[in-house]
């Protein structure tokens, strides 16, 4: 067990058989060399030659000149922690094991990839006004070689869609450059690829040492991209016609495929909702307001999000984009609008087969087709017809519950109370998905403290169904730690991890977000020596929760429900609330926490789950003569939780953190308020409309073209019922007028060489 290390009770050869590696992650494309630590020298002198991933993908390992064992990651068609084993007897036995984190290719750092200088030029090469040299750069130290090869690889998915024989394949096509110096830069003038290779229009470049001939070898990959630069003469001679034919072919194929639109989640109505619903939506890295809103594929948008979970049957994805006013952009109104995806960009478990391959299925079905129809030709209406935006009429925001400070609880239904117990408690659990979120509170001590009995959240552990168990905690030296199945996780290489039944994300300032398959989300951050926790639950959890965060049903009267289903008045005293909290203490048999120190074992595993002898201060005294009170009033104003925590901890810093957490919770609840949408409105034939916002109170006005007059409503307002006011407008021809068109005629002069005569 991993806890044996910190407890000092491991078997002597634990570290030899449970391997530690560095680096611990790399692209799913493979080719990343990692070192294996702590194999004994006696072992290394034997035949170290085979590594096996997932008990079936075999690769070669080697011992370097410095005597260190190394392995090279293979090409994988999935993300997440992949088990691997090491054999030192030619593959007869595999006694040594570890895990390798396979990462979505776009989430790998730029330093690990080669760079397509002016990537747009690469992907438009051969279209009008795009020619000349292309340049590729890379960190030459990434490959221990004096000379390198540059290869072109293509991606395809073969077989019948949504069948067992639907297969994904990365295929080596040809070598672009062979035996060139490894100086970190290569420039060339592209020529059409020979033979059938020019038929591959989506792929990637790989740089490898020239000394290797074949197999799983050290590699540096480029970004996946549209291979315009190597397409054939038919593309270069008339890129618009070539792309139009491809667009039409894609459109015909789409016609025969199942309609995935019916099962994807609707978009949030506003940018505020989209950024607040962190259990179900996450920033689309291609359009991020935090990074300057560089939205190449969605000009006019300031931020896009993607649904975290793929749709259940077809593994499709949802994308939602918003403008500077916070309104959703729809493809009916603009090519910058949100477009759903037949293949979820991040893939989906169990991966391995289309359309669940991370990144690449999405490219094949949703991105290269965008090049065909929208970027290389003027047929975007075909693309938008197959990828129309979802509006937000059926979107229901989640409910939020929070805990922070000394500790204060805000339930899903909006009730708040303070429970200062010491122990381990069920914050929320649900029989809907076997969701469990547990919190540990510990006594805290502050430099200016008076010995008052102060507790705060020090650890939160959670699991849903049979997912991995995630725990976030303060260590004994007050460092924030994240544990995955009792093992401390290192975010030094990756901030996003695809795990079993759960996604895990950490920001640079250690805000931890846990996203479960059900759409429930948990956010945790360190704050003034205590943890601040927020739990977000979708509407389907209504009437299916219990614990300290209460019964989520919109009714505060049953918020204080005990395990035996009896309830207590919402006007209960702090002493009674102390009894309510104690009732929700967890038991060792159901605890999700890790007990890997003597302190945790003695105080929480062997000790009481609720420390009945710990008596907190229920009503801190506010002494007018206390000099701290004046500073407290200036800091806290009327915030009762800030004032409470300053008085109990004697710390303005804690009070400030509590005040900020309280403000953040109120803002979150405000951002998650339901918004009424009346749905998209079209303009009338032979007319136009003003306005592209379709939420409560929005007004859309209509104008007819010259020669036509409007019948129906000149403007329509989105009403509280979710319906538009007025009647559908029409533009009809004015009485006595006849429609006409202008034509430009061109006559061919067959008798003279002067050319065309235009009338």
UniProtKB/TrEMBL annotation:
| Domain named VWFD: residues | 399-592
- Report the SS bond pairs: 704-731
Cite a single Pfam family from the UniProt record. Sushi
Which InterPro entries does this UniProt record tie to the protein? AMOP_dom (IPR005533), C8-3_MUC4 (IPR056619), Epithelial_Barrier/Signaling (IPR051495), Sushi/SCR/CCP_sf (IPR035976), Sushi_SCR_CCP_dom (IPR000436), VWF_type-D (IPR001846)
At the top level, the lineage of the source is Eukaryota
Q: Which SUPFAM superfamilies match?
A: Complement control module/SCR domain
Q: Which GO terms describe its cellular component?
A: membrane
PROSITE patterns this protein is in?
AMOP, SUSHI, VWFD
**What UniProt keywords are attached to this protein's entry?**
Disulfide bond, Membrane, Sushi, Transmembrane, Transmembrane helix
Residue span, AMOP domain: 239-387
From the Swiss-Prot or TrEMBL record, give the protein name: Sushi domain containing 2
The listed locations are: Membrane
Q: Where is the Sushi domain?
A: 676-733
């Amino acid at each position: 067990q991993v806890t044996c290390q910190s407890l000092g009770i491991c078997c002597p050869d634990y570290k030899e058989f449970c391997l530690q590696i560095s680096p611990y992650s790399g692209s799913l494309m493979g080719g990343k060399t990692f070192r294996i630590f702590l194999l004994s020298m006696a072992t290394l002198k034997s035949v170290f030659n085979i590594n096996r991933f997932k008990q079936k993908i075999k690769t070669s390992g080697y011992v370097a000149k410095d005597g260190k064992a190394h392995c090279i990651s293979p090409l994988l068609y999935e993300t997440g922690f992949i088990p691997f084993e090491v054999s030192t007897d030619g593959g007869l036995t595999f006694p040594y094991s570890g895990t390798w984190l396979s990462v979505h290719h776009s989430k790998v750092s730029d330093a690990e990839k080669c760079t397509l200088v002016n990537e747009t030029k690469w992907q438009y090469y051969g279209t009008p006004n795009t020619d000349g040299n292309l340049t590729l750069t890379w960190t030459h130290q990434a490959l221990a070689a004096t000379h390198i090869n540059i290869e072109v690889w293509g991606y395809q998915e073969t077989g019948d869609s949504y069948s067992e024989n639907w297969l994904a394949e990365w295929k080596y096509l040809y070598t672009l450059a062979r035996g060139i110096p490894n100086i970190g830069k290569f420039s060339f003038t592209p020529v059409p690829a020979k033979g059938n290779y020019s038929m591959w229009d989506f792929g990637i470049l790989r740089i490898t040492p020239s000394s290797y001939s074949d197999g799983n070898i050290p590699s540096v990959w480029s970004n996946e991209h549209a291979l315009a630069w190597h397409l054939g003469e038919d593309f270069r001679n008339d890129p618009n016609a070539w792309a139009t034919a491809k667009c039409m072919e894609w459109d015909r194929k789409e016609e025969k495929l199942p309609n995935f639109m019916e099962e994807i989640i609707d978009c949030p109505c506003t940018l505020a909702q989209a950024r607040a619903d962190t259990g179900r939506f996450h920033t689309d890295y291609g359009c991020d307001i935090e990074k300057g809103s560089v939205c190449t594929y969605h000009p006019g948008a300031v931020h896009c999000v993607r649904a975290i979970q793929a749709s259940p049957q077809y593994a499709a994805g949802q994308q939602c984009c918003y403008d500077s006013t916070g309104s959703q952009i729809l493809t009916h109104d603009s090519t910058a609008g949100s477009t759903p995806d037949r293949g979820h960009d991040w893939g989906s478990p169990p991966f391995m087969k289309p359309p669940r391959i991370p990144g690449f299925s999405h490219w094949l079905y949703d991105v290269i087709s965008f090049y065909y129809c929208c970027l290389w030709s003027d047929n975007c209406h075909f693309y938008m017809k197959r990828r129309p935006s979802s509006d937000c009429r059926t979107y229901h925001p989640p409910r939020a519950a929070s805990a922070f400070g000394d500790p204060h609880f805000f339930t899903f239904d909006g009730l708040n109370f303070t429970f200062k117990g010491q122990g381990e408690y069920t914050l929320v659990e649900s029989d809907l998905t076997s969701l469990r979120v547990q919190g540990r509170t510990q006594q805290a001590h502050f430099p200016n403290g008076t010995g008052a009995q102060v507790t705060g959240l020090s650890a939160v552990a959670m699991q849903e169904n049979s997912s991995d168990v995630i725990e976030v905690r303060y260590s004994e030296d007050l460092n924030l730690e994240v544990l995955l199945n009792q093992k401390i996780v290192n975010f030094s290489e990756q901030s996003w991890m695809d795990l079993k039944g759960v996604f895990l994300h950490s920001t640079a300032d250690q805000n931890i977000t846990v996203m479960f398959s059900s759409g429930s989300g948990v956010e945790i951050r360190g704050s003034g020596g205590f943890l601040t926790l927020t739990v977000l639950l979708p509407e389907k959890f209504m009437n299916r929760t219990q614990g300290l965060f209460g019964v989520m049903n919109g009714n505060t009267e049953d918020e204080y429900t005990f395990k035996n289903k009896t309830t207590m008045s919402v006007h209960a005293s702090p002493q009674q609330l102390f009894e309510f909290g104690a009732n929700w203490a967890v038991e060792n048999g159901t605890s999700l926490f890790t007990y890997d120190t003597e302190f945790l074992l003695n105080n929480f595993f062997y000790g009481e789950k609720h420390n009945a002898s710990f008596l907190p201060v229920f009503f801190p005294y506010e002494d007018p003569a206390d000099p701290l009170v004046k500073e407290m009033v200036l800091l806290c104003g009327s915030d009762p939780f800030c004032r409470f925590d300053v008085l109990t901890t004697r710390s303005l810093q804690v009070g400030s953190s509590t005040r900020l957490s309280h403000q953040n919770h109120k803002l979150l609840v405000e951002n998650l308020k339901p918004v009424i949408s009346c749905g998209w409105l079209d303009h009338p034939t032979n007319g136009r409309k003003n306005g592209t916002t379709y939420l409560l109170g929005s007004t859309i006005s209509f104008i007819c073209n010259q020669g036509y007059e409007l019948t129906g409503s000149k403007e329509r307002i989105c009403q509280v019922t979710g319906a538009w006011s007025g009647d559908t407008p029409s533009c009809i021809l004015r009485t006595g007028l006849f429609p006409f068109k202008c034509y430009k005629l061109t006559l061919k002069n067959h008798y003279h060489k002067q050319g065309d005569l235009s009338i």
